[in-house]
Amino acid sequence: VLPPFQLNTYASQQKNQSPHPELHYRLRKCREKICLQKDLPVYLVAGTASIDEMATYLPHTPEELQLISGFGEKKAKSFGPDFLEIICAYAKEKGIGSL
Description:
By secondary structure, the chain is mainly alpha-helical. The protein is built from five helices and no strands. It has helices spanning 21-38, 42-45, 48-57, 62-65, 73-94.
């Protein structure tokens, strides 16, 4: 009989090739926080492809966020402000804009 153990799902993923790995990490943490607060699976909040695109294209507005795969009007309205706050703060820190 095996003792109970926990599995870190992030440990099994490939290394991220994001141009902004620090932002990518912050966005994943934000997604994790939203999932815990609302008791939702990660794919309903923002899939890995969505996080990758946000960290690449740096959307600054809800309209730009809706151009990210997996983000429609409803999801952008529900979860967008949390992600946009992180992206805009990061961009301001680094002196960069959206692509």
